[in-house]
Amino acid sequence: MASLLPSPSMLICLLLAATVAAAAMTTTQQLDEAGGGGGGNPTAGFVKVDLTAGNFQVQSPYNVPESQRYSYRDGVRQFWVRETDKPFNTATHTNPRTEVRLRGHDYSKGVWQFEGYGYVPSGTSGVSVMQIHCEEGAAHATILMLHVYDGVLRFYDGQAVEKDIYDRWFRLNVVHDADRSAVTVYVDGERRFAAGVIPSRSYYFKFGVYMQHRDQSPCMESRWTNVTVLTKA
To answer: Where is the Alginate lyase domain positioned along the sequence (predicted)?
Structure first.
């Protein structure tokens, strides 16, 4: 007879998910505190793009119901994925993910910005939580990925962007100057990273959890609220 007890990795997922109710009660004051690290305003000179529910396309493992890997309650989007999960469809051999692909606002020129308040619970490792993706079929899939390894937010597997990311709400702003092929990352209003990137024909933003190729935890989770897209006025 098959065991009715959950696997160790599922137990970890359940424990991580158990705190979502508390996370969903994020207040405006908490968000203001998260974004106030120095009083920086990376959105100055930008205008918000109108986003509707249809712009938030969820991609999750094809072999389990979406509701077992994603929730959206009280303004908080919670994403989690197990290291043993399948890809998001049967046509790809990529690693498992539960992400939102922001649709309807792909761009090829100008200056664009992703803004959101993120939360990564301790224990999550070996995962991308935000990326700028290139057009489908491009020689290089992304120009920016922000990975989490043991509490450190990194540009891909390299330079540290923020050294202590666990168990707190942080304001993330990622600015992409497509004309100059440059990206700049701000955490809590402070500039943390900038680099030139390989140009592509078009781009779009993604966020959530996408398992990487080393140091993966059995379960990976991130939460996001107040996600928006901006562009230069």
So the answer is: 50-229
DSSP string, 152-199: EEEETTSSEEES--BTS-EEEEEEEETTTTEEEEEETTEEEEEEE---
Beta-carbon contacts of residue 149 (< 8 Å; ≥ 6 apart): 125, 126, 157, 215
- For residue 124, give both structure tokens: 């999550």
CA distance 111 to 99: 23
Domain locations along the chain: 8-232
| Domain 8-232 annotated CATH 2.60.120.200 | yes
Give the type of residue at 147: H
Which position has the token pair 């990326």? 131
What's the distance, Cα to Cα, between the start and end of the chain in Å? 63
- Helix, coil or strand: residue 142: strand
Rounded CA-CA distance 233/226 in Å is 20
Per-residue pLDDT of the chain (233 residues; tens, 9 = 90+): 545 555 555 555 545 444 443 444 443 444 444 433 345 799 999 999 999 999 999 999 999 999 999 999 999 999 999 999 998 887 777 899 999 999 999 999 999 999 999 999 999 999 999 999 998 777 789 999 999 999 999 999 999 999 999 999 999 999 999 999 999 999 999 999 999 999 999 999 999 999 999 999 999 999 999 999 999 97
